[in-house]
Amino acid sequence: MVILGRLFNRKTPPAPWPEALQIGAQTVPLLLVHHPRARRYLLRLRPDGTARVTIPRHGTVAAGKDFALRNVGWLATQLQQLAARPKTPVVWQPGTEILFRGELVRLETEATGAICFGPERIKISATSADWRPAIQKHLRQLAAQELPARVRELAAAHGVAVARVSVRNQKTRWGSCSRRGTISLNWRLIQTPMAVRDYIILHELAHRRQMNHSEKFWQEVAHLCPDYLAAERWLKQHAKLLR
C-alpha cells in the first residue's frame, strides 16, 4: 500500500537520503529517494520496516520529510499490521508450514525418505539441514508447467493476444507485461489460491489493452476480474509467507 502526495515544483539531487522517524517508542528508518519519473510524493512501508518516500522530479528532500511526518498515523497502522503478519521460517525443516495453492501445509517425512507437503512428494538428500532450496525448486518447476498454460487459457477466453509467457524469480513483482506481448509471472503464484493466481494473470492481460495504471486500466481489470480487491487483500495479508 502506498500513500500519494501532491507534487511540489522544486528541485532535489538525484540520490537517496537515510533518515529516521520516531513513531511512539519505535524508531523507523526513513529512506528518501528521488525518482525522475514520479509525478507525486509516495510513501510506503517496506517489508524490512523501512519507510520509503519517493520524491518526484521537481520535489525536495524537505518536502519529502514533511510528507512522511504528516502521515505518521498511517505508518503506525502499517507497522502494527507488519508486526502481526506471520514470519516466514528462514530454514525449512520437518514441521515447517508453507503456503501451497493458498493453503498452509506442513512439511513431513515418509518412511521411504520422501518429503511430502499436501499431495506433493519429493526426494531430498538425507544430509540436507534446510529443505527450502529443494522444495522451492520443485515449486518453480510446477509453476513453469502450470502458469503459461493458464495464461493462454485465460487469454483465449477473453480474446487477448499474448506473444510469450515466462516464469521468473521476481523479487518485488507478481507479474509484468511488455509492449511486445510478453507476460512474465512470479513462480510464487503456485503458492496462492487459484483465484489470486488468476487475478494476477488477468491484471497482466489487462495491460495488453491499457499499458498503464490509469482509470481505464482498472476498469478493464474490474471487467476481467470483478473480485480483484479480495485478491489484492489476500496478497497483502500473506506477503510474509510468500518470500
Brief digest:
The protein has about 240 residues and is of the alpha+beta class. The protein has helices at about 60-70, 70-85, 130-155, 195-205, 215-225, 230-235; strands at about 1-5, 15-25, 25-35, 40-45, 50-55, 95-100, 105, 110, 115, 120-125, 165-170, 175, 180-185.
What does this structure look like?
- This protein has about 240 residues and is of the alpha+beta class.
- It has three domains: about 1-85, no CATH class; about 95-135, no CATH class; about 140-240, Metalloproteases ("zincins"), catalytic domain (Zincin-like, 2-Layer Sandwich).
- About 35% of the residues lie in helices and about 25% in strands.
- The chain is built from six helices and 13 strands.
- Strands 1-4-5-3-2 form a five-stranded mixed β-sheet. A three-stranded antiparallel β-sheet has the order 8-9-10, with helices on one face.
- Helix 3 crosses helix 4 and helix 4 (about 195-205) crosses helix 5 (about 215-225).
- It is globular.
- Mean pLDDT is about 85; it is low at about 1-20.
**Uncertain regions: pLDDT < 50 for 5+ in a row?**
1-18
User: What value does the average pLDDT take?
Assistant: 86
The backbone outline, from C-alpha atoms, is globular
Number of helices: 6
The largest sheet, given as strand count, sense and whether it forms a barrel, is: 5 strands, mixed
Radius of gyration: 21 Å
How do the helices and strands follow one another from N- to C-terminus?
Answer: EEEEEHHEEEEEHEEEHHH
Given this structure, which CATH class of the largest domain is correct?
Answer: Alpha Beta
Helix coverage percent of residues? 25-40%
**Structure class:** alpha+beta
Q: How far is the N terminus from the C terminus? A: 17 Å
The CATH homologous superfamily of the largest domain corresponds to Metalloproteases ("zincins"), catalytic domain
How are the strands ordered across the major sheet?
A: 1-4-5-3-2
The total number of structural domains is: 3
Question: How much beta, percentage-wise?
Answer: 15-25%
From the coordinates shown, what is the CATH architecture of the largest domain? 2-Layer Sandwich
CATH topology heading of the largest domain: Zincin-like
